[in-house]
Design a protein that fits this description.
Layout lengths: L2 H14 L3 H15 L12 H17 L4 H18 L5 H17 L5 H29 L15 H4 L6
Length: 166
């Protein structure tokens, strides 16, 4: 992200943060409107707490927008946790749409194409890390298929030992 995009995310967040609970409510309402099946993932959730956690997570991303690489381990852990809740890679697109819509609602006329692109880029970076971490965790925990190993032809002794004769 460019410094200009980072500043656009920061300044727009400053306008949304004072209405954090309202923005989180708008986000979840829009998310469930876009894909009503996602509501099942939250059936046991305390939605008041969920809204608070969402906004706190977004605040962390915004505060670290110029050094996202430093929070990637936390973002990856979040992705692994979300996978455990049943979140799939294809859900992230819907979440991104709901997030951008929410930012637009929160900013009103101050929402510009540039602000939208900056938020989309930030979300893409964070969600990509979450998706990849979940994918890797799933691959690691997937049951292994037992295979019969084939014995390959032995390497010539010189290559096996790492030496090359001239």
């Amino acid at each position: 992200m460019t410094p200009t995009e980072q500043q656009l995310v920061r300044s727009s967040w400053a306008a949304i943060e004072p209405i954090a609970d309202e923005a989180a409510t708008l986000f979840y309402d829009r998310l469930f409107e876009l894909d009503p099946r996602l509501k099942a993932l939250f059936r046991d959730a305390d939605m008041e707490r969920q809204r608070m956690v969402l906004m706190q997570s977004l605040a962390v991303v915004v505060r670290n927008i110029d050094r996202l690489d430093q929070i990637i381990p936390e973002v990856e852990a979040l992705g692994r946790r979300h996978a455990g809740y049943g979140v799939r890679a294809d859900h992230y697109q819907t979440v991104g749409l709901a997030l951008l819509w929410t930012v637009k609602q929160g900013l009103g006329d101050a929402f510009t194409e540039e602000v939208g692109h900056a938020w989309a880029d930030a979300y893409r970076r964070v969600s990509s890390a979450m998706i990849e971490a979940a994918r890797v965790a799933e691959a690691i925990s997937a049951p292994r298929v037992r295979r019969k190993w084939r014995v390959a032809a032995p390497l010539p002794l010189g290559l096996a030992m790492g030496s090359v004769s001239t």
